[in-house]
Amino acid sequence: MNFYTRKWVKPEDLNAHGTLFGGSLLRWIDEEAAIYAIIQLGTNSCVTKYMSEINFINSARQGDIIELGIKATHFGHTSITLACEVRNKISHKSILTVDKIVFVSIDEYGKPKAHGKTAITYTDERLREED
Ligand SMILES: CC(=O)SCCNC(=O)CCNC(=O)[C@H](O)C(C)(C)COP(=O)(O)OP(=O)(O)OC[C@H]1O[C@@H](n2cnc3c(N)ncnc32)[C@H](O)[C@@H]1OP(=O)(O)O
């Protein structure tokens, strides 16, 4: 799993207990996962279809630096399935896991569209393809 994005937990991200608000974390995850799906599928016409059970394992506190990890686990015909882990950047203690986040590639009418991708590609491979 690659941990691309880091966040610094600030006062506006906290819940009434003074720990990281789950809603803030889920918003960051949805955006991170969407960016990952867009890059892998090569189109920004894709939507979140499904999120599996979310397991909040440990809380994060103000001042903590956390990192968001995403990995593609399955390429379907029109969909891509991702797994996510959020952990403390310093201690590597797990904060949250999501087993499955599914994005679907759509056409101009909002209907599922084949994306033609079968495996993870990395930026340097994509740049080589464009040469
Ligand atoms: C980035 C964002 O915030 S987007 C905003 C939030 N998301 C949305 O508004 C999306 C709203 N939903 C929709 O518009 C529609 O449900 C669509 C277009 C995504 C999918 O339409 P459907 O008629 O359900 O599509 P369909 O049944 O053909 O399935 C499409 C793909 O999704 C997969 N899929 C459908 N339902 C599920 C599910 N519950 N769990 C996992 N995968 C699913 C299918 O297996 C299929 O994948 P494949 O082609 O790779 O085999």
Q: Quick summary of this structure?
A:
The chain has 131 residues and is an alpha+beta fold.
Using the coordinates above, name the CATH class: Alpha Beta
Tell me what portion of residues adopts beta-strand conformation.
35-45%
User: What kind of sheet is the major sheet?
Assistant: 6 strands, antiparallel
CATH topology (level 3) name: Thiol Ester Dehydrase, Chain A
Note down, in words, how this protein is organized.
- GO terms for molecular function: long-chain fatty acyl-CoA hydrolase activity.
- One of its GO terms (cellular component) is cytosol.
- InterPro entries: Cytosol_ACT (IPR040170), HOTDOG_ACOT (IPR033120), HotDog_dom_sf (IPR029069), Thioestr_dom (IPR006683).
- This is Acyl-CoA hydrolase.
- The chain is α+β, with helices and mostly antiparallel strands.
- It has helices at 22-41, 123-130; strands at residues 2-8, 46-51, 54-56, 65-75, 79-88, 94-105.
- The protein is built from two helices and six strands; from the N terminus they run βαβββββα.
- Strands 1, 2, 3, 4, 5 and 6 form a six-stranded antiparallel β-sheet that branches.
- β4 and β5 form a beta hairpin.
- The longest helix has 20 residues, at 22-41.
- The protein is elongated.
